[in-house]
């Protein structure tokens, strides 16, 4: 489930209306804090477990991951000779959440304490089969159909099906994301939660979701939603309550490149109030975004 499907708040901004160019009045407030978002990450969007005690949630997530390794992958024809190697690769993939890190670097991070490393062909098989099972759900690189942009990178952004799975693979909790050694993953996993929410809402709007990054990295947009008629909504995700001009520079660039094809621009935040900036860009707390 996306965040707006979990009953943790009352969405006041519709992504579908943004895509159709109909959501000019952006408003609403929420009491969700940064810690509340981290708890939503830890508890997952799986409807059968996300309201259970944390210890049971952790156990269910571990069981789910182990079942994929022990049963689901063999059922689709992939024999796992060294389950611990696959687990290490999954943890390396989880650590790359919300980034276009190359698969070569993920493979390098899979090296065990004794220096052993799985073969590249083995990890390609992991990737392909785990994507087939919907455990991996990468965000593809995006390019506009009507107004092609040059120099765009097509590498996907890495995402698991639910950020709770990434947190579990990395042994992270809401507490460690907030104050502990997991703090470097706080931003990427918040973006994972936002991505899940945007993708669910975009599906209801018959829209596709990608990310945009130029080859030299001078411009990037976290999420680009393209509607059925080619209309574009650019989205940045910020683990912050306040938005500065620097935070929207890539959105402004996108609007300058695509002109009228861009029907709206938005920054998703951890703040408490939805509003429009003077430049027309919407600022929307994640808890207020729905379909």
TrEMBL record:
Span of domain DUF4143: 71-239
InterPro entries, alphabetized: DUF4143
Highest taxon listed in the record's lineage: Bacteria
PANTHER family for this protein: CONSERVED PROTEIN, DUF4143 DOMAIN-CONTAINING PROTEIN
Protein name as catalogued: DUF4143 domain-containing protein
